[in-house]
Amino acid sequence: MEHFAHSPRDGFPAQSYKSHVEEVSRIAKENAKAIQPYCRLDGKLLVNISEEAALWHDLGKLEPENQLVLSGKKEARTLPKKHWDAGAALLRKHNPIAAAAVYSHHTGYPNFVSEIRKQEQAFRVSEVTTETDKSLDSFEAIHNTLLGASEFGAQPVFPRGDQSVFLRILLSCVADADHRNTAHHYGRGLINYQATELLPDKRLEKLNEYVDSLSCGVENKDERATLRSNMYAVCRDADTPKQVSISSCDSSVGSGKTTAVMAHLLTQAQHRRLRRIFVILPFTNIIRQSVDVYREALTLPGEDPKTVVAELHHRAEFENVDQRQLTALWKAPLVVTTSVAFFETLAANTPASLRRLHELPGSAVFVDEAHAALPAKLLPIAWRWMNLFAKEWGCYWLLASGSLSRFWQIPEISQDTPTIDVPEIVDGALRKHLGAYEKNRVRYCHDLTPKSAETTIQWVKQHPGPRLVIVNTVNNAAVLAAAYKKRFGRKAIEHLSTALAPYDRDKALERVKERLRNPNDGDWTLIATSCVEAGVDFSFRVGFRELGSLASLLQVAGRVNREGKYENSEIWTFKLTDSPEFNTNPAVRHAAEVLEQIFTSGAAVSQELCTDAISDEIRLRGVSGAYKEMLKSEKSSEFRSVAEKFKVIDADTRFVVINPSIAERVKSGDIYWPELQENSVRIWGYKLAQLGIPLIADDIYLWNLGYDDFLGYMAGLLSKGDPSSYIV
Known about the structure:
This protein is α/β, with parallel strands linked by helices. The protein has 4 domains: 4-185, Orthogonal Bundle (Hypothetical protein af1432); 244-433, P-loop containing nucleotide triphosphate hydrolases (Rossmann fold); 439-620, Rossmann fold; 649-719, no CATH class. Helices cover 45% and strands 12% of the residues. It is built from 30 helices and 18 strands. The strands form 4 sheets. A 6-stranded parallel beta sheet has the order 3-8-7-4-6-5, sandwiched between helices. A 6-stranded parallel beta sheet has the order 9-14-13-10-12-11, sandwiched between helices.
């Protein structure tokens, strides 16, 4: 009698149990073996447990009622019996770690303390436990007949390193194998994906050529160009010993970090034999700019740039079998993604979220604009993870920003992590030279009298253009942009925020750059959210920033008078009125209080104040208590609690497709994740419910209100007189 693991559908036959389990075991073991050279404590254990968990993960599918559905003899949306109980039951006494992975390979890791309190019912599915126990011997016999008998170890073995990180990587190895084989069976993915190799020595040569070409034919370099050239050489050639696993780079904005730090990482990857480089950026819109540079500068002859540099905006992940092909994986040699997608993956507990995590060990990780990567309350546990991945999983970290706060020196953040040296890769002399250049380029001003939309746009218009205005929420940007357009006309205004889908953001970004290149086009204003305050190659005549953090204000300085063409360009900090037309971003409230205190004290705005500002913000937030609770949960493997609490953007946001034709393809399953992310936005779940936005697939919606390429989805909300409370 043949036994099955997946039912027939969409013209594809049922998949045999033997075929699925063999392939999942093979891929899970391969995933773990690829990590083994970088795992300094538990590499062999990971290989063994990954294979064992994969071998038994679907044991419960052998249950007769499940087989009726899987064979196609009976139709059902889900299997009648939860199949992950059987494998967990079998493994509990022999290999508890493997049992936990099997139990969690569909529903995700639970809180372990709560599970262990169940004693004999720990990691069991209560509604099928009795039936499973009666049939377990017969399931095991069938399994052994199909796949051969297995030998279990005499004693359970546990990881020597951090258990929570080990368990996440274990589930990643198994879930990726399970999802990949399932997708392949249904014609939606490659079973043996051959990733492009990093080849750091060759890509460094290519990068050197690219950087040289930028200055080719340029005579008599100005001071800025000379500083950028020196920056590149210093970063590339930095003497960073192998025992140093975390470094920093606090060079000022506009110093060429994009290429200089990449040269450093390629050098480190070559010395440390790393397999992948991650570039972590705080905002989705600056991903495309960095990706374009990296693809041009690092792609070798004959390669497809998209396989060399992966561009990942949203956390595109889905548990549904039909949508697993949409999951954004980390398989390219260079992965450029957001801090939300990256750090929330480190905190995740579900298989769809974790299935990419096994690609991280043995990587160099560049956290760009590190000042904006995470809210202060999440820095302590993120710092713990950085140290663990550096110490136990062979990662090298580089933290960089034009307004870098040395948060690891703050006691509330580093209290659980042994003090380590985080050296600078740029020498003091060059950093001092760069800092002196910055002080002569911009002048910080403030007017904290609250202003209405009309007052704000009239005030902004009085200053010379082109002008940059950055506010704290998507709503505020849309309200001001709409008012500006109504008062001064469309040619006088551009708008950029995550209310626009990536496709339209890219077009708006290119339009802004083109206008900035035109010396005869000066009387206009860009109104945007914080998504343009870091990492974007802009240079405006004057800047305006709604009261927020000191680090954000310093970053705006990098978008004003970037090349030093004007003397003492101004950057104004301002407030908006507390009125129904505007909303507030609670995430910046304490940081705004700290910056207002700096203005009140008369202190000069400078990068040197950043660490103190973060420390003051932590004091106002009382982050220490929250951190201790989250740390306790992490150490106790309370996975569900950590995943729920660790939110970079504290919002239940969902994928919302803005293109009806794309929505139809989502429904049919005929779409791949890059197209989905290009034509979608993220909106709060509760807002979607209030507005009656239709669900078209699991966790994917279709925006059926107004949308245009100027205000994005905010066009529909403002036309309804219903401003969004979506916060960025």
